[in-house]
Design goal:
Blueprint lengths: L2 H6 L11 E8 L1 E2 L11 E2 L5 H18 L7 E9 L7 H14 L9 E6 L3 H12 L4 E7 L3 H6 L6 H13 L5 E7 L6 H13 L4 E6 L7 H7 L8 H17 L3 E4 L2 E3 L6 H7 L4 E4 L4 E4 L9 E4 L4 H10 L6 E4 L2 H13 L7 H8 L3 H14 L3 E3 L5 E3 L1 H5 L1 H18 L1
Parallel strand pairs: 1-4, 1-11, 2-3, 4-5, 5-6, 6-7, 7-8
Antiparallel strand pairs: 8-10, 9-10, 12-13, 13-14, 15-16
This protein binds iron/sulfur cluster (SF4).
Length: 417
Amino acid sequence: MDAESAKQGPQRDGRFDDGKVGVYLHLPYCDRVCPYCDFAVIAARPLEPAVEARYVAGLQLELEGRRKDFADRTLSSLYFGGGTPSIFGPESIRALVDAVHSAFPSSPAGEIETTLELNPSTLEEARVSAFREAGVNRLSIGIQSFDDGQLKRLGRAHRARVARSTLAAARAAGFENLSLDLIFAGPGQTVTGLDRDLDELLEWSPEHVSTYELTFEAKTPFGRALAAGKIEACDEDRAADMIGQIETRLEGAGFERYEISNYAQPGRRSNHNARYWQRQAVLGLGLGAHSTEARGRARPHGARRANPREIGEWRAALAMDPSAVGELESLSVQTARGEAVFLALRQREGLDAGRFEAEFGAPPSAFFRSEIEAAVERGWLIEGPEGDLRLSAQGRLFADSVAADFVAAEEIERVGN
Ligand code: SF4
């Protein structure tokens, strides 16, 4: 707890805060950097043991420094993201799992969901069993496509054969909770090509699937190639067709589209990611990690913290004060309201008007009447009799633009005040 919160005393509203914490550890090293990647990553081939050990020690130091802000919370989930966490050795992963468990007690009921992102490769395949022994019980595997041409166009390091053997190794090691990543709307991808990817993905019977529409961020090689006219982005209508195609195929196979980009078999939603969508506390550690800090008297609408994306800056911040790494932003009421709508609309259950009113003092229609009417008129939004809001099937194809309108409305109000 920081000095300000200690002075105010803990204050937790059980209607909005589950009293738990999810921990995210960012492991930024990758074999090589993919041309569309906009994450905080560092190319390292191979990852030197001294670099690995130094980074792990940095994470442990940050955990010790930051845990006070999440004191008295039980651990709800643990997530190793990146980067490519699986290029770290299982002993490093075990040390970090142990450190997080000693920082936060876990509730005695059930196992803590512990996810590790892993890329298909022979090196990582050989480590899969050891990751399980280190405490990982869920793998998120960066398959992206089963088509070698597509993988090549995406600039991925692996090929489909390796993806298949990594999947087989994960099942053989006893992993019963696999999430597979799939990229769509990549350069030159056709609807038929996507269908073939979905055929093979379903043959592996994953418990969870995350889908990503390829985006061209300005500072990436793909972004620059797009600006120079050397690469063509998938047009909006084809991308919308692909979103519909994925939904039809996966729902037909028993998946639930519980968040706009995420599908799960019954009971297999990602607990960790749900914490961000439900605005619950998350402690993010490492390069470029984000934390969601809980609401309290000092920060009635919560706060978020963003760690430096550059390794030298992160280390310098750690050396200066490991309890205060990153930029802390207390959320204004307008930002919190915009986020509440944005995140709720991305979820299957949509926005509960009663819960929104309990937090913000009035129902969504009091703040967003014109945005609601415009989206309902276009057939993108459904407004229930109690004022609850959720996206229609058509709205789910354009979820980002619908949700962005609500955030923009609050941003205008915030700047105006
Ligand atoms: S493997 Fe993932 S994190 Fe690493 S560079 Fe590629 S997209 Fe980025």
